Predict the 3D structure of the following.
Amino acid sequence: MPPTPPTTSPLAPYVHRDVPLEFAGRRLAFATSLDLFSSHQVDVGSKLLLRTLEPVLAGGLGGGAARVLDLGCGYGAIGVALATLPVVASAHLVDRDALAVDFARENARRNGAEDRVTTGTNLGLDDLAAAAGHAGAEPRYDLVVANVPGKAGDAVIASMLLGPLGVLRPGGLVAVVVIEPIRALVEATLARPDVEVALRRDTADYSVFHYRPAPDAAFPTPADAFAAGVYDIASLTFEDALEQPVTIATVQGLANYDRFDVIESALTRRLPRLPREGCVLLANVGQGALAAYVLRSHPAARFVLVDRDLLALRTTRRALLALGAPEDRLETRLIGAWTGDSAVQPTADVLVGVLREGGNAAAVTAEYLGLLGALAPGGRAVLAGSSTAITRLLAVKLPPHLKASRTKHRGTSFLEVARAAATD
Ligand SMILES: C[S@@+](CC[C@H](N)C(=O)[O-])C[C@H]1O[C@@H](n2cnc3c(N)ncnc32)[C@H](O)[C@@H]1O
């Protein structure tokens, strides 16, 4: 089926370009975002992995109706391409990044595979049970594929390599591509008597491994890796507004595991006076240091944590709970693309965060307007960003009840936005 032409997708502000992929005699096309892996073309490693999989699937894996899991799907190049094959019955695409998942869903649609593709914002294999269809059922796949994130950290990489062996159906296969810097780690992780490597292909920059449980070996359904501490790396201690020490547990795979981010630290000096029992929305929460800082000064506030990264949300939520935040005053919202559907209710008395600027200008504007939509009457927002982004955002026309201005603190720029107390 020819690729569906791009239409008025709600993802339009986030699209960098459409990249082509020739696969199994088909011409596929993928919308990419500057803020996602390999936005200029489909990754060379992903293409290499796909080439090694064509004969395996043609050989009847899964009895000609294979169930595929794409772990860390990005915008969906591998999983969507596989889902276009007649021998693939279904492909489940998961990523910890909700924006990636939004793109994977869109790319399934563009390539006519939406009826065989399901998606989920998942942390590794931790959230797969929801895909099993009914409570208590174990999700099982004939093929698990991954272009393994090279900088996720050794323990996380090992869990992403071995965990899939515990979600295979009998006769199933795991197939991964990895970059050269982690080739030796992958080789060592798979060198075990209970793992059978069926194929290995090396180039200067990549290695592909196909592997499965050795005959008579059985792998259990993987335990929840986040809860088991697989992501944990260190703890971070800093001073709150009353110069009392606060300690949070930090994880690998997010920046600033060993220091309070300088921009977040500058933000603490610009925090508006918070109503003690109001609602605080924290955007792009990272390791959770800023959230912990605000919790210490305003323990009675309600918190809404917004991020597109499930790892950041889980880590921050865990930090706040450990510091005594009551569960019923803690809400998390995973938002990839800010579209009409992802809107947050206008309940925030205070909105604080660092703008994400990895995408194109339209994407940053969409995030800005989406966040401001969460301000309650009388609410105040303080958003940190680059000077260029803030100059541009100040030119964005806002509804009359919102007033934006710029402030600076030691080289960091902030956008401060106030919503009028009563709006008509
Ligand atoms: C190397 S990229 C591959 C993306 C895509 N499969 C491709 O081939 O273009 C790795 C992806 O894994 C995701 N990722 C990293 N750590 C993850 C985790 N713990 N759980 C789920 N996804 C993860 C990243 O967000 C990223 O999209």
